[in-house]
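Progress narrative, Year 2. Work on Methylthioribose-1-phosphate isomerase from Roseibium alexandrii advanced from sequence curation to structure prediction during this period.
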Amino acid sequence: MNVDGKRYRTIWLAEDGVTVEIIDQTKFPFAFETVQLRTMAQAAHAIRVMQVRGAPLIGATAAYGVALAMREDPSDISLLAACTVLLETRPTAVNLNWALDRCRRSLIKVPSQNRAEAAYALANEICDEDIAINLSIGMHGMALIAALAQTKRTGEPVNILTHCNAGWLATVDWGTATAPIYMAHDGGIPVHVWVDETRPRNQGAFLTAWELGHHGVPHTVIADNAGGHLMQHGEVDIVITGTDRTTATGDVCNKIGTYLKALAAKDNNVPFYVALPSPTIDFSLSDGVRDIPIEERNGDEVSWITGRTATGALETVQIVAEGSEVGNPAFDVTPAHLVTGLITERGVLDANRQAIAHAFPERVKKSA
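Result:
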């Protein structure tokens, strides 16, 4: 996507062909800074502290982390150790495990003297595949938006509500939930996005609003609890979110608060769609509420918040009463029966085992 007229991916190789560069997403929305990753440990740190985040981007970063490890030591022991360390950085997003398993299976067959080169090629391939997948998701999702636009008066926008950041900052490019929005906007379809702030890390207010603004998409940031009210008053035409892991039966795990949006959408007959690349589908799981591990993050993310003061200084302040215990589950699971459809690179699917398996038979076979 474009940032002030310059084309960016979220992750890329530096001019030396070995150093990995990323956009430091912990600095948003107050600064746009890049970071260089020269070791596997630095890649693992970037994932753990959320300098990179979003399931597809986490997977891509892990693949480059393996490449960096192979550059340092291409042995079998190093390969397995790197995969182990990287896998432990974040527990919920299945793309991490998918990318590392792909790296391990592929590279273990490569002679050690050729392993670093092969690892970089594989990481590049994973990134290019992600972009192609997101382009397809965008085309299928744009058709849904275009159909809604036909029901509107001339010039009236399609109002889309999204939660967290499933934009290009969460992928290598284009995004999942935002790809249909960008394509609709670029294609001349009037759209307006309700951007949930997405406490406690504020990925909606900090990230989604930032990227929509830089792309020129009309949007309004709202408190997380405002979505249901807007749906009751007919101000939301469609909800589109992303997902970090989706089961074989269509249960969707996404940023905490997504489940509440799905409940409100169901109660108000607002279509609730989830945009996802196929690597996000975990064919080994059938019951998302029971089986998907939910990351419990540091309570400081809830009790402290960083913002810019009137003088322009950045300050981190406490917002929770002293002595109160704080819980911070990072994700929740939306059961399949609340999902109108899954927007994938192979079309819009019903959220059930049969439809998912029919669309991705090769993934079902591998997981059996």
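The CA atoms of residues 297 and 328 lie 5 Å apart. The longest helix spans residues 112-149.
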